[in-house]
Amino acid sequence: MKELNSIFEEVGTPTHKVTQSHLVSKTEKKFIKTLQLLTFYLLLITLISSCYKPTSGCLNIDATNYNASADEPCDDCCSFPNLNIKITHSVTTEGTFGQDSCINHSFDATFNNVANNYFQIKGMEFYLSDFQLIMSDGSISEVEDEMTFMIYDDAISQTIKDTTVKDDFVLVKRSSPNYTIGEFRKPGTYIELRFKVGIDEKLSSIDADTLASSHPLSSDNLLSFSTRDSGFIYQNFSLVKDTLTNPTEIEVYKIGKETANSVQVILSLPGELKPGFDAEIPIKVNYSTWLRGINFGTDDLETIKSTIVSNTADAFEIGD
């Protein structure tokens, strides 16, 4: 029994002692695991960033395709707003009770004036150019478009020189109300619109045959006189001037620099043009005003043409 007790005392209850070496081993394992996870995430981030390509785009806030999410500016990819006009062709009719009204022009409508002429406006074409918007601080804004024209030195010379000018010419016809003036990059608050009816006399000797058919000054439009010295036809009116006696006889009035130079029109235009958006300006043309004071029965050709020129600026107003 003694021996058994002795053996029992030596063996005793089985125990497990935690040593310092065990603690170090667990700490190291935890550290290694953390380091492995950290390394994995770093590699993942590196991999993702290496696959990402910066986006280029237009970062000019005044452009129509401004891209706020782009990382870097693109190379000449910005598109800028256009300045447009919308023309309303109108006439004034005398009301029964003295209240005049302005209505859309119709080719088949017959009008009478103070001289008791009964006439029809069968067609009209005219050039607009040199558009300017006056800002509230007095500065002038114009379209950015330019074009190099081939211009003869004078009316008889065969020498041509390249001349770069602002390209904002518009040929207004009764068949179309909408026209694009050109690219416009200066938003802001404006107080006035200016333009000319006609074309600068210095451009009379443009070689119109060299222009694309889509250009307003192209010879395809047939709005130039037969000689280079006479230049372009600024205003072209086709009228039946006496519907009572000659209802089918059409008289054409061609007005160019021989009658007068281009006519300046100045219109009040309070408003704001926002960046990144096309702007449209409504313009009303009143042909009753344009032909005001003419007696088609007694006035000669030159008197009629000069009266039309005198009335030109008053015939335009800002529309609705």
What does this structure look like?
With 320 residues, the protein is an alpha+beta fold. It has two domains: 2-51; 82-318, no CATH class. It is built from four helices and 17 strands. It has helices spanning 2-11, 20-51, 287-290, 301-311; strands at 56-57, 72-73, 82-93, 101-104, 111-112, 118-135, 140-141, 146-152, 160-166, 170-173, 178-183, 188-197, 233-240, 251-256, 263-273, 279-286, 316-318. Strand 8 (146-152) and strand 9 form a beta hairpin. It is elongated, with a radius of gyration of 40 Å. Residues 1-16 have low confidence and may be disordered.
Uncertain regions: pLDDT < 50 for 5+ in a row?
A: 1-16
Number of helices: 4
Let me know the number of strands.
17
Q: How much strand content do the residues show? A: 35-45%
> Which structural class matches the secondary elements?
alpha+beta
How are helices and strands ordered from N to C? HHEEEEEEEEEEEEEEEEHHE
- The radius of gyration is 40 Å
Largest sheet: 8 strands, antiparallel
How confident overall, as mean pLDDT? 83
Distance between the termini: 124 Å
Helix content: 10-25%
Total separate domains: 2
- Approximate shape: elongated
